[in-house]
């Protein structure tokens, strides 16, 4: 039940954050940070991927312009990562 809750909440928070961020006119510096976070996560190895992916998602939440959204996304990402820590890092699981 807890895992279902974590995943369902993520399915609401993260698309909502992306939608809100996409609806804003971002300053060039904001676009640069977002793109840099995307590029870093896209090429990250297994040791760094989850941390860099989390930074990308937190950046999107920040760029949504809804201050109270950021701690919600951060807490949910921490819960997602805690669950992911329980899965062995086998190639088939990563795929």
Descriptive overview:
There is one protein chain. By secondary structure, this protein is an all-alpha fold. The protein has helices at about 1-20, 30-45, 50-65, 70-85, 90-95. It is built from five helices and no strands. Helices cover about 75% and strands about 0% of the residues.
Give the helices and strands, then pairings.
Elements: H1 2-22, H2 28-43, H3 49-63, H4 69-84, H5 91-94
Quaternary structure: single chain
Evaluate the radius of gyration. 14 Å
Number of helices: 5
**Largest sheet, if any?**
none
Low-confidence stretches: none
Anisotropy-based shape: flat
Mean pLDDT over all positions: 91
* Secondary-structure-derived class: mainly alpha
Q: What sequence of helices (H) and strands (E) makes up the elements?
A: HHHHH
Measure the end-to-end span: 24 Å
Task: Estimate the helix proportion, in percent.
Answer: over 70%
Total E-strand runs: 0
* Share of β-strand residues: under 5%
Keywords:
95 residues; mainly alpha
Q: Could you give a short description of this structure?
A:
The protein is mainly alpha-helical and 95 residues long.
């Amino acid at each position: 039940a807890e895992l279902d809750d974590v995943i369902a909440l993520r399915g609401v928070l993260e698309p909502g954050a992306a939608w809100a961020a996409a609806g804003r006119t971002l300053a060039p510096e904001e676009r640069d940070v977002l793109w840099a976070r995307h590029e870093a996560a896209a090429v990250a190895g297994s040791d760094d991927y989850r941390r860099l992916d989390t930074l990308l998602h937190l950046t999107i939440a920040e760029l949504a312009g809804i201050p109270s959204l950021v701690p919600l996304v951060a807490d949910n990402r921490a819960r997602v990562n805690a669950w992911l820590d329980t899965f062995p890092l086998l190639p088939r699981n990563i795929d």
